[in-house]
Each structure stands twice: as C-alpha cells, then as structure tokens.
UniProtKB/TrEMBL annotation:
Residue ranges of domain PDZ in the record: 329-410
Keywords on record: Hydrolase, Membrane, Protease, Transmembrane, Transmembrane helix
PANTHER family cross-referenced by the UniProt entry: PEPTIDASE S12, PROTEASE DO-LIKE 8, CHLOROPLASTIC
Keyword Transport attributed: no
Organism: Salinispora tropica (strain ATCC BAA-916 / DSM 44818 / JCM 13857 / NBRC 105044 / CNB-440)
Feature: compositional bias, Low complexity: 9-21
Residue intervals passing through the bilayer: 79-101
Protein name per its UniProtKB record: Peptidase S1 and S6, chymotrypsin/Hap
Amino acid sequence: MTDGWDWRPPGTGATAAGSSSAPPPGGPGSPWWSDALADPWRDPMASAAVVVPAASVPGIEPERVTDPDSSARPAVRHLLIISLVTALLAGALGGALGYAFAIRGGTTPVLGGAPIQPPELAQRRPESLAGVAERVLPSVVTVRVAGPDGTSEGSGFIATTDGHVITNDHVVAGATGQAMVIFNDGSVAPAALVGQDPESDIAVIKVAKEGLRPVAFGDSEALAVGDPVLAIGSPLSLANTVTAGIISALDRTMQAGEPGGPTRYYAAIQTDAAVNHGNSGGPLVDGAGRVIGVNSTIKSLVAGGQEAGNIGLAFAIPINQAKRITQDIIGTGKARRTVIGAQVGGGGAGVGVGVRLVSVESSGPAAGAGLRAGDVVVTLDGRPTNEPTDLIALVRKFAPGSVVVVEYRRGTSRRNASVTLAADAK
C-alpha cells in the first residue's frame, strides 16, 4: 500500500512494504526524493515536521510572499476597538461614582467640574440688595381685613418688639371685623386696631406674638435723589415681594383721598420701585435696610374703569413723619396735626410763584412771626411753594414745635420769618 508517491525508475524492482532501501545513488534530483527518508508518512517514528529546503540559487534572495488573508491587521484593529470601548466604560463608571459621591457629600457638580454649595447655603454680602432683603423680610407682614365690600389686603411692618405694626389708614379703614396679620414664615395672628389718623394715612395695629423682630428706622431727612431703595410688601396678594429702584424725588407734595373720604396731605418720597395695590403700608427701605418711608400712593394711567397699576411713579410717607404719628397713636390713641395758623388760597396772583395767605389766625404761629393776610409765601424751610397743597403738605411734615424759616413777599419786598409750628386744637 502506497500514498501515491511511491514511484520507481524503470527497471527497478519493487521492495517489500516496510523496507528501508533508498533510491539508488545518482537517482533523480527531485526534492521529493532528497528527503524521502524523513517523510513522516513513510516513517511513523519521524518528527511531525516538513522541511522545505531554501532556494540555492546564488545571489538571488527568495521573494517574500504575503498572504492577503492574513489576520495581523484585523487583530490590531480589534485591539484598538477593545481599548476604546474599555476607556469609555471606565469614564462613564468614574463619572457616575463621582456624581454619587458629590451628592452624598453635600455638593452639586456644575459645568467645568467645580463643586459649589447648594443654594440654601449660599451667602450674600449684608450690604447687597439680597442681604438687605433677607434682613428686612421677617419684619414685613401682610394685613388682611374684612370690610363691607369683602376682604382687602395691604402690607405693614413690625415697629416694636411687643407687636405694634405700622400700616396705612386706608388699609384698615372701614373694617367690620378683626384684622389678621400674616407673617413672613406663613404664620397667622389676629390683630387689634390701636388707632389711626386718616389725614396722614397712618394706622397702628397690634398682634400678640413672641419673638417679633422690629425694623430698623432710618432718617428721611438724610436722603438724596438717586439713593437705592427696596419696596417690600404684598402687591396683588403676592406676599413677600421685593422690588428695587431709586429715590426719584423728595418732598413731592401729595393730595390724596377717596371721594367722600378725608383729604390726605404729605410731602412724599417718590420712587421708581415697582409698587402696586397691596404694597400700601409696606416699608420703603434704604441701602442699609433701614425703613425710610411707608408706601402709600401710586400714580397710573387709567381709563374706562381700568385698574391702576405700576408705571414707575410711587410715593411713600417719610418715616420721620410716620414714626412721630405712630408714637402719638400709641401714646394717646390719636395723632396731632401740625398747622401754621393761616388759610391759603390760589397761587400768588400775578407774581408767578408762591401761595397767598387768605387769612391769618390772630393767635396762631404765622401771626406770631409777623405774617399777615395777603403775604405770598415763596418757600418753607427752603422748599418752594407754588400751590396751596405744597404749603399744607410741607407744614404737616414737621412735628408741632418745630421752627421753620418762611420766605415771603409783601408788596415788592421779600422777607424771611422764623415760624414755630403748632398742633391744631382737635
């Protein structure tokens, strides 16, 4: 039995199977015969290797043959893909673990990877608007009263540690039931009316509650146009609202009041901070968080029954005047009204500026300073008076007993007089 390659030259005899005889010397030079003795298929005991002799042509290198189906390149590509996938998975796992540790550790990651404190731990500088609002808000309240036309709301602020709250008279006017006060933290307490002054539009109510934080009072005589201010209150029932602006004008004389009600006069602080219905009675505070006014009135462009809204013209009662009236109400139950002891008419007839005194009380402050009927008051304490409202509002700004300089004209001469203002007899 042969493998098909047992070929013999002509004229030789066959050998028995298993014979170790080799082809005769000088046989064919084919390489198939040169290693016949090492053929593993002929010698079962031979090593399982096939040796192909190298080409023996001198000076010629064998040509390198590359198998196009070789797996070398795919192996490199597979290694790259595996490495990339591994890196992506490692990055995703690391990010997930980092986020979990950051949340557990109380920090929140932001773009760029820098952790910051949660918002509830963020601090604001005390002199910033946010710092001022944070200090004042706990002292501001919402005032809710029931009246013949339903429930109305306004604002107020805590003036004393024992529960006195300042608000506007028109907030509590006409109340038919007990007022309720809603605090910054949402708690509610009943309030009793201590007293009110319709002509100055100031009222005082009192609540029974522990741990109250009163406001800090500023000086409304130390203000300048352009100073920053915050208005705080509950406009349109939106409690704890803070709006910012500046002082737009000082001593803006106002005459206000509802038909059939009292006429209110005051020399107001004008601001462009947004103020709407419901802000009434709330505080106007300066850049240091001190109350310098009581928000009271707005001007608005309305027509055809439209509701008035903010257009950047709001007015506050100066806190020096409001504080004085509050002290009167707490002490005596009513406020004193400051007067000059004269009746005023229209503008200075034919002279362009000033208001004419129509009559002068014989025992009043004006008469005591030498003023007479017919005199034209040009300024009071340096503030110009061009309308009767100006003189009345400026006089009521001062406390009884205050001494003010009045500049007036009599005929063609201009004179000055020091007038000691008094309280009326009511």
